[in-house]
Amino acid sequence: MNPAATNPPPAETAAWFLAQPAAFHEKWMAMALAEARAAAEEGEVPMGCVVVRRLPDGTARPVGRDRNRVESLKDPTAHAEVLAIGQAAADVGDWRLTDCALYVTKEPCPMCGGAIVLGRLALVAWAASDPKRGAHTVFGMFDHPGLNHRPATLFPVGGPAILEELQSFFRARREKPPTSNL
Fold this sequence. Notes:
Layout (H helix, E strand, L loop, with lengths): L9 H9 L3 H20 L6 E7 L5 E8 L2 H4 L6 H13 L7 E7 L3 H10 L3 E6 L23 E3 L5 H16 L7
Parallel strand pairs: 3-4, 4-5
Antiparallel strand pairs: 1-2, 1-3
Helix pairs in contact: 4-5
């Protein structure tokens, strides 16, 4: 039997997540931020992600958690969201993550947005929007009528401190002279 067949539909799960108090969402975003800080220490873009599963007893637990690893793995697809979604699918035992929410420090890019849609995650929450490349802000992926799944969204989560931390990272990166790959 398909394990997802026993899960509540994504809309019901999204409503459950959205009904939780702000402290619930901030707890998971703090975990994502810890991953982002670790990524920055490793020379990666500071993106952290946590996938949280709603359990039948009314609680939730993390089932996937990672950070950007593009530089360390030399893999352009090694974004925090893609890695965390892969871990979550392995933990859940199915690629359908209909009873899960994804918390990420910055709005997902279109590649990660595609993974979120394909994975059928119920909710996507982020701290800082990306007005240049955001899957939702720019491309409208999470409410596009042509897609077979549209997760609920929640933003901003975690307050302005996360946005300032991300902006500081990119400001410092712009001020640093580029290195050559030659």
